[in-house]
Structures are given as structure tokens and as C-alpha cells.
Amino acid sequence: MTLDPVHFDGIADLARRIEQDVDASDHRAFAETVWNEFLDPLWDGNTKVLEPLDEVARKRVDIADVALCDDRFPTCHGIDSGTINPTTFKNGLVIDVAQAAMSAVPSDLELHRSRTMVATVHTNDTAGTFDEDWSMFDDGYSRARLFKVPRVNRYEGAVVHALALYLAESKHALLQAEVVEDLLVLDGPIYPKGLLNWENRDPELRELLVEDKRPRDVVENYVRLVERFANREIPLIGFVKNSSTKAITNAVRGKAEAPWVNDAAFFAKVLERLADGERLTDCLTFTNWFVSRGGADETFSVKGDALGIDRDRPDEDYEVTFFIIYDPRQDIVYKVEAPYAFTKDEELRERLTMQLLCDVARNRGPPKVIGKADELARISQQEKESLKQKLEQTFHADRERTYDDVRWGLDY
Q1: What pLDDT sits at residue 403?
Q2: 80 vs 101, 169, 226, 337, 346, CA distance in Å?
Q3: In terms of pTM, does the model score above 0.85?
Q4: What is the DSSP string of 78-109?
């Protein structure tokens, strides 16, 4: 115990001093102004970064009622991938390992057994050789591949992590695409924003994304996934549990001082319902659907270049569209994404909206199929440590450790 009561009181006093300078009602009023006056469409310079598919509207459904609604899709599949996180070894290797799994509702045990595993490796040793072919295991239910990532001078961990995560997810989704009959839900955005954000993160990463075929090939997998599902007329959506996008926030700051940190905070302000200063928790509130062309979404907008990736459908079919769900029971904002190929159809757009509202109401959070996919793909902390120890034995090289590994008990 390092904080005595007097220390807690000192911190609380600091907070009170901050509170005196922040008026929550002013923030809410400004959010209302942005909602009512800025979004139809929202301009950032000469670019429409946000545009409603129909009218800008806030809606609500009674949680108890919508939880009892019939599913709009008879079956649903979900996909997710998890990693052990980037690990640096004393022999110079930086490695991450990802596994992807697909879930089904109703359950499909053979499908749940299947895995796609990818180990990404960064090395500065040009003499090293790597077998990068796919190999099958678990009686043919699963496959694995070693993937040598492009060499970088910095961000080795970020590169191995993003490429492992997205290569495993996209390849598994393409492999299992034919088993999906009604709806596929990705755990996260519909495009690999962790890769697309490289364009704005650092010159070295931007050059890597534009000039090197390997990252672009991973992005292309998601393009082919959209095309495959659009051609089969089976919707593909992404359920984003922790959205940190700032397209609206940044565009508004060009006109006035936006007081919120990101777009999720803005939507929470405009979707929260209050009575006598207390949050009402009887209804889910949600927005209309928007077309998004800001931030990482610009890449697949009609004005973007899609990284030069060939596309088989009209450019607008690949644009990112989304709507927002606010769950007042946990005070959480969820973002649901879909390519315009699906949401341009009003009837399908309504079915997707109601399906996701039903799921969130029933589960007090993400859809059941996403929870299943997350459980299948997750690598536990104990499993991560065991795998890292196994890699140490395989390489005859210890991991690089810092004092924080000891301080925070990361060694077992």
C-alpha cells in the first residue's frame, strides 16, 4: 500500500479543481450542435468524411422487447484471431504467433476445431532460411505457416503483430467462407485498420505499406473477402467493441474546439438519455447508417486508391459504412461496420440493424457469435508463457527481458 488516506484526499482535491473548469452540460450542448448541424454531410476541407445513407436520426428500442425479437438471420458465423504478442529473442529474432478461429450459432463443433495459425518473424540476419509453405496438422483440421516480415529499423514488434493477426484472420475467413450461409461477423473492423493506419503513423511504415507486396497481400485478402460475400449476396459485417477513430473529432476541430477525445465519446454524448441528471437504462439508442471516408476508411473510399489493389466491383461497394449502438447499462458505445455493397439495400440494412440490436440486448454486450469466436481464438496468459518458453528451447536463445518483466511478474 503506497497511498495513505491523505494521498487519496490530495488526488481527489486535484480532480475537484479540474471539475471546476469543465462543464459537462456545455460539452453535451456542443455535441448536440454537431449532431444537428454538422453531419449531413461532414466536411473536412474539400472531402466529405461522413455522409448519412438516409436521414440523420437517433433512434431507440426497448431493451426487454428487442431482446425477445426473432433473429433476422437463421445462422450466424463469427471470426477472430488472437496472438501471443511480439516477443524479442537474444539471437535477434522478433516473433509473434496468431491463431484464427471461426464460430457458428448454432454450434458447429468441426468448424470450431479448425484453426489457421501464422508465425511472423523479423530478423536482420540475411543468412537465415525460412520454410514459408502452409503445413497441415490436427488430422487436416488446421494449417500453419511461417511468414517472414519485411525488415524495418523500428516498429519490429508492431509489424510482426499486425501481419500475424490479420494474415491469420483473413486467410481463415477465406478458407471457411463457403460454410457461411446467412451472415459473417468479424470481431473488429471490416478492413485491417491496424495496417491501413501505417499510412499516417510513420514514414517508414507508410513506405512499407505502399512499396512492399507482403503487407498489401494481407490487405488484399480482405478485399477478396468482401467480393466473395457480395457476389454470393451474403452480408459481411464488423463488430467493433472499442472504437478509437477520430474522423468526426478531427473534422470538427477544423471548425470549433471539440471537447471529446474521440468519436466514440461524441456518440456517447448524443445517444445518452438523461432524466433529472440520471442515465436512463431501459432502451438501446442507435444512429442511422453513415458512409465513412475519413482516417483509415479513406483508403477504400471512392476517392481512395485501395493501395493499388485490383477490385472487381464498383468502387463504392467497398466503402465503409457504419452505425452506432449505445448500451446505457454499461455506458458503452459499439460500432457496426459493413461494406456499402450490403447497406445500399434498405431492407438488408434494416435486417442487419435489428439483428445487432437483438444481440446486444440479449447478451449485454457483443453478439454471442463474437463471444464464441473470441473464446476459440484467445491464447491465455499461461498458454502465451508456455509457448514463449517452448520457442526459447527451439531457438536455444533466451527472450530479451527488462526489469518490468520482473517487477510486474511477467516471468513464471
Answers
A1: 65
A2: 6, 6, 16, 15, 28
A3: yes
A4: EEEEEE---EEBTTS-EEEEEEEEEEEES--H
